[in-house]
Write a structure and sequence with these properties.
The protein has helices at about 20-25, 30-35, 45-60, 105-115, 135-145, and strands at about 5, 10-15, 65-70, 75-85, 90-95, 125-130, 150-160, 165-170. The N and C termini lie far apart (about 40 Å). The protein is of the alpha+beta class. The protein has one domain (about 5-170): Gcn5-related N-acetyltransferase (GNAT) (Aminopeptidase, 3-Layer(aba) Sandwich), CATH 3.40.630.30. The relative contact order is 0.14. It has an eight-stranded mixed beta sheet, with helices on both faces.
Length: about 190
């Protein structure tokens, strides 16, 4: 599939390019991104350089779809659909430290979810959210997006250095996206 550009009130979501390498490298120095995502740790500039062609290849092969989240000229983060197959996918994301706390992630992820469920998009029947146990910021975002908490996956999430217990939640096209209580979040 050719890359798709999505737009929201404040954001453009488009395929990352070579011009994003410095911003990706800088953002991925964040300990939280290294702790809670699958980016290499330590994260070297070559990782960002290798990421760009891999994203394009994955789009072309219908394996994964990753968007750079842009607020004007600023690369705010990445959001994508991973583990694509038989009507389902997993939503994944990270935001650069300077772009957190302003609702940009949920705005971007809503656009991806809407497109993924749409008949003129992917027409998915299910989207999953997963996070390493303890990643409450990601859990709050997942809940805000309307995902329903489904449970604990023991030692199911593999990072470059270890296996981790993970939380899992799901979203179906017809779900009411009003945030529901999650037992792993106290607020």
């Amino acid at each position: 599939m050719d890359p798709v550009t999505l737009r929201t009130a404040r954001l453009e979501l488009s395929i990352p390019t070579e011009a994003d390498v410095d911003a990706i490298f800088e953002a991925c120095q964040d300990p939280g991104i290294q702790r809670y995502t699958t980016v290499p740790s330590p994260y070297e500039r070559r990782h960002a350089e290798e990421f760009i062609p891999r994203v394009a290849k994955n789009w072309a092969m219908d394996l994964e779809q990753t968007w750079a989240v842009r607020e004007g000229a600023v690369l705010a983060g990445m959001v994508g659909l991973y583990r694509l197959g038989t009507g389902s996918a997993e939503l994944g994301y990270w935001m650069s430290p300077g772009s957190r706390g302003r609702g940009l992630l949920t705005e971007a992820a809503r656009a991806v979810i809407d497109w993924a469920f749409a008949d003129d998009g992917l027409g998915l029947e299910r989207i999953e959210w997963r996070a390493v146990v303890g990643n409450t910021a990601s859990a709050r975002a997942g809940r805000a997006l309307g995902f329903r908490y489904e449970g604990l996956l023991r030692q199911a999430l593999l990072s470059p250095t270890a296996r981790h217990d993970g939380w899992i939640a799901g979203l179906l096209p017809g779900d009411d996206r009003t945030p529901q209580p999650w037992p792993v979040l106290e607020d």
